[in-house]
Specification:
The protein is an alpha+beta fold and 769 residues long. It contains 13 helices and 35 strands. Helix 10 (609-615) packs antiparallel against helix 11 (619-628) and helix 12 (721-734) runs antiparallel to helix 13.
């Protein structure tokens, strides 16, 4: 039996060998993964580093598209040539470009809304995260070497500065623009320009500016602002037109040129920023943060409501104007400018410029007429001689308030306080109180068409006296007003009449109706009271005058000078009523169509004996008066009952009864043609051998009266007393029929009673009675 060969022994693996082989697989995989991650991270870091170093140029077009989509405007970083464009993300977002252009809205006709050269933008990530919580966008820095803005608003209220979809025109006026809520840590424009075309405000201007703003910079040195010299005018080919305090500016300060892309040919502007400003910005050189003062300097020239406008502006930090907080601090502002021929200066503060446009400060303004100043503001003011005024001004939304500390208008010295409110959907209204030391009628004359100088008076149509300049009736319908008037003195402009001291009243303008009511003029211890109304709602104005005169002492009111020691020419009390209505578009028209009645009386008076005798051509007695001296002649009564119909004034009657004579006037005056045909006759009550009882005629025109003796046979030197009685009696019978209408005052009742008694006595003195 054969033997089975033995099986060779199997070798056993070394302890831990199998375990080592199994463990090396996962480790190798992790190593490769880590290596791959490191490579990817390295590539990313390297790529980011390279892109950061290169400035991420491939993001230029996507960023343009993104901004264009968000703003709904075309945004471009393309310049005229090779354009530098860099974007950085490390440490925040930083963008720098040689050119940035944002187009205007589709309806715009002005081209790009914004063109910036050498611009830099810096944002912090933390500030971007705050946007999720409704916080305003905070910009670390925004700088531009040159910035050109084209700002416009059309007649429908669409504005180029509002981005995105616009609200309805009925609501967009009160809504805050989309870019509101931006805060800048640093905002700098070394040279900028802005073309403005606002169809709603009828504003068209070109502005040049330079600014440097930062919340961290200290306020500007006021001394530096005071040295700022802002010039605005033409180049060497045209006449210069400086604006601002150029004479006081330091000539050594460098000047930063301000050039606008759309500036008119031959136009130049510059801002002299003081001893700290460098001119390198104009030459493309960089500037340090200390080169420009904090704030803004600007100039502007253009037209506002068809009137030329020119202005220069200096401010403190304007950053609060861009804040979404309505309680942001106010911005100090210094403004110098002109509208038309008016000059304006303002020193104060402006807040919330985007919406409420509030301001407070002090102002000085001067010009050729108040009307010229009121027109651009939409305020109806009277046409006046040249004026100058100063005071304080405050605005809050649609409400303006001013305290006029002093106003010189011609020879008038006035002051007062006023409020003007112009809501967007309501008619504007002016309220307040006009005060003053003195007001001269001549200074208000231009507003009713009265010529103010000799040339104007000579050139008046056909040498007419009554003003024929047409009223500006549309201006009466442009606003409402309620202004109290309290004047210490009102001068008529003639040395023959005493001034009213004081003059009170109230001017109410409502829906085109001007009502000067509650007139209370104290004159010579008497009073003129009543109202004057002008209804301008129709193309032809309606005029109404209701005045009452009481207790006026003629010896004080009439200022005719006499030699020392001699009595006044006329004394006594005057009173009466005036009630007239008319229609037309000028003062001359109103009087030419006037209907109504004027009744005046004169009692308790005296008149110069010489005047009466001379008026009656009583030569003998007049010579006697001259030799022995004038004496007062008592006046029993005087009555003028004047009927007015279609501008024709007819005495019915007009009589003065003295101790010696009875003076009666008949005829008429036409206010339409300004021609007179009056006859005055003096009937002596005593005998004089040289009395020429021939009536005196007053003919001609108001501008050229002709006074003479009636060309008729002279009456006999001696007239039977019966003739005198016949002449006097009918007049005496007429006087008691005169009344003052409804509700006469007590003094008028007494005066008429005295007149009735006087003329009744004259009738009884008739011979044979």
């Amino acid at each position: 039996m054969s033997a089975t060969p033995p099986t060779p022994p199997t070798s056993s693996p070394a302890p831990g060998a199998a375990a080592g082989t199994n463990a090396s697989g996962p480790h190798h995989r992790r190593h490769h993964w880590a290596t791959g991650v490191a490579v990817v991270v390295g590539l990313l870091v390297g790529g980011v580093a390279i892109c950061e170093w290169m400035g991420w140029p491939f993001l230029r077009r996507p960023l343009e598209n993104l901004l264009s989509q968000k703003l709904e405007r075309s945004v471009s970083f393309d310049g005229s040539g090779e354009t530098r464009w860099t974007l950085r993300f490390i440490g925040g977002i930083r963008l720098r470009t040689d050119s940035l252009q944002i187009s205007g809205p589709s309806w715009s006709t002005m081209g790009p809304m914004l063109v910036a050269q050498d611009a830099r933008l810096a944002l912090r990530y933390s500030d971007l995260l705050d946007l999720r919580h409704g916080q305003p966008l905070r910009v670390k820095a925004l700088e531009a070497g040159d910035l050109a803005l084209r700002i416009e608003r059309d007649v429908e209220g669409r504005a180029s500065w509002q981005f995105g979809r616009q609200p309805d025109s009925a609501t967009q006026v009160r809504e805050r623009p989309r870019f509101d809520g931006v805060r800048f840590d640093l905002l700098e424009v070394r040279q900028g320009s802005a073309s403005v075309d606002d169809k709603i405000q009828r504003l068209s201007l070109l502005a040049k500016f330079a600014l440097r703003e930062s919340w961290d910079l200290p306020p500007p040195d006021q001394a530096l602002l005071d040295r700022a010299d802002i010039q605005f005018g033409r180049d060497s080919d045209g006449a210069s037109a400086p604006s601002g305090r150029t004479a006081a500016a330091s000539s050594a300060a460098p000047r930063v040129p301000l050039v606008a892309a759309s500036a008119p040919a031959g136009f130049t502007g510059s801002a002299r920023l003081g001893s700290g400003a460098a001119s390198g910005a104009a030459q493309g050189q960089g500037q340090g943060q200390g080169d420009l003062p904090r704030g803004m300097v600007a100039t502007a020239e253009g037209h506002f409501r068809d009137m030329p406008i020119k202005a220069s502006l200096r401010t403190g930090s304007a950053l609060p104007w861009l804040s979404s907080d309505p309680n942001a601090p106010a911005v100090p502002v210094t403004l110098r400018g002109g509208i038309g021929n008016a000059r304006l200066s303002f020193d104060g503060e402006v807040r919330d410029l985007l919406v409420s446009q509030g301001l407070t400060g002090r102002y000085e303004i001067a010009g050729p007429s108040l009307a010229a100043v009121g027109e651009p503001l939409g305020v109806t003011l009277p046409t006046t001689p040249p004026f100058a005024m100063k005071g304080t001004l405050k605005r809050d939304g649609s409400r303006w308030a001013t305290v006029v500390q002093s106003a010189t208008i011609g020879k008038s010295k006035l002051h007062g306080h006023f409020e003007f409110d112009k809501p967007p959907t309501e008619k504007a209204k002016l309220t307040g109180e006009l005060l003053g030391r003195e007001l001269w009628l001549a200074d208000l004359g231009p507003s009713i068409g009265v010529p103010t100088d000799r040339k104007e008076r000579v050139s008046t149509k056909a040498n007419r006296v009554l003003p024929d300049k047409q009223f500006d009736l549309p201006s009466l319908r442009a606003m409402d007003a309620d202004v109290a008037v309290n004047l210490d003195r009102f001068e008529s402009g003639t040395a023959l009449l005493q001034a009213a001291q004081p003059l009170r009243g109230r001017i109410v303008l409502q829906d085109g109706v001007l009502d000067i009511r509650d007139i209370d003029a104290r004159v010579a211890r008497g009073q003129f009271a009543g109202r004057i109304k002008l209804d301008g709602r129709q193309p032809t104005a309606l005029w109404e005058v209701r005045l009452r005169v009481t207790g006026v002492h003629l010896e004080q009111w009439l200022q005719a000078k006499r030699d020392a020691g001699k009595p006044p020419y006329v004394t006594g009390l005057m009173g009466g009523r005036i009630s007239l209505d008319g229609r037309g578009r000028s003062t001359a028209d109103l009087l030419a169509t006037a209907d109504g009645r004027m009744v005046l009386y004169w009692t308790q008076g005296t008149v110069s004996h010489l005047i009466v005798e001379a008026a009656g051509l009583d030569v003998a007695q007049a010579l006697g008066v001259l030799i022995r001296g004038d004496k007062d002649l008592p006046v029993q009564c005087g009555i003028a009952d004047l009927k007015v119909k279609d501008g024709r004034v007819t005495p019915q009657p007009m009589v003065v009864d003295t101790r010696d004579s009875l003076v009666r006037v008949d005829g008429d005056i036409s206010l339409a043609t300004e021609r007179m045909a009056l006859r005055a006759k003096v009937e002596p009550k005593d005998f004089s051998p040289l009395t020429l009882r021939t009536p005196i005629k007053v003919e001609g025109t108001l501008s050229d009266p002709d006074i003479g003796v009636e060309k008729a046979p002279l009456l006999r030197k001696v007239v039977p007393a019966a003739v005198l009685g016949v002449a006097v009696a009918p007049l005496a019978a007429l006087i008691p029929l005169v009344d003052l209408g409804e509700d006469p005052d007590d003094q008028s009742k007494v005066a008429l009673s005295e007149c009735n008694a006087a003329f009744a006595g004259a009738a009884k003195r008739r011979p044979g009675s």
